[in-house]
Design brief:
Layout lengths: L1 H24 L1 H21 L19 E7 L2 E4 L22 E2 L4 E7 L8 E6 L4 E5 L1 H6 L9
Antiparallel strand pairs: 1-2, 1-4, 3-4, 4-5, 5-6
Length: 153
C-alpha cells in the first residue's frame, strides 16, 4: 500500500519538477528577445524605422546555448550573431515555423527557436515592437501531452 502511494506521488511530482527545469531553460529565449526589443527600440529612436540593412546594425551578439534568434532584413529572416548552431531533432539553424520574423518602418516581429530537451518539438517565441512576447510553439507542454494530458491545459 505504501509503495502504491509513493508511486502515485512520484507520477505527479516528477513531471512537474521536469517542467520547472525546462521553464528555467527557456528563460534564454525571453532574455534574448528582450535584448532584441531594446536594440530595435534604440535603432528606431535614432533612424525612425525598425528596418535595418545588416544584422550588425542591431549591435547584438546573443549567447545562444539552446536558442537561435532571428530578425528580418528585406523580408528575409537572418540569425543574430551568437545564436545557437546546434543541430538536434529540432533544427535551430533554420528559422521558426510557427511565426515569421518581419520588419517595417513602424513594426517588427523578432523570433526565437530552441530545443530545451531531447525531443523533436521546438520551442518558439516572438516579440513585437510593443514588447509583447508570445510562446507560439510550446516544447514543454506539447511534449508531455501524450503522457500527462492535464499538463497541456
Amino acid at each position: 500500500m505504501a509503495l502504491l502511494l509513493v508511486v502515485s506521488v512520484m507520477a505527479i511530482v516528477l513531471p512537474n519538477i521536469t517542467v520547472m527545469e525546462k521553464e528555467l531553460r527557456r528563460s534564454e529565449a525571453r532574455v534574448g528577445l528582450d535584448a532584441i526589443y531594446l536594440a530595435a527600440q534604440k535603432w528606431k529612436a535614432v533612424h525612425n524605422t525598425y528596418a535595418i540593412s545588416g544584422i550588425e546594425d542591431l549591435g547584438l551578439t546573443l549567447p545562444g546555448k539552446r536558442y537561435s534568434f532571428w530578425y528580418a532584413i528585406n523580408g528575409i529572416p537572418i540569425a543574430i550573431p551568437g545564436s545557437s548552431r546546434k543541430k538536434t531533432a529540432c533544427d535551430v539553424t533554420t528559422p521558426p515555423t510557427s511565426a515569421k520574423a518581419a520588419v517595417s518602418a513602424d513594426r517588427f516581429v523578432a523570433v526565437a527557436k530552441g530545443n530545451i530537451d531531447i525531443d523533436g518539438t521546438c520551442d518558439e517565441w516572438t516579440i513585437n515592437e510593443a514588447g509583447r512576447m508570445n510562446n507560439t510553439l510550446d516544447d514543454i507542454r506539447k511534449g508531455w501531452a501524450r503522457w500527462w494530458p492535464w499538463m497541456h491545459e
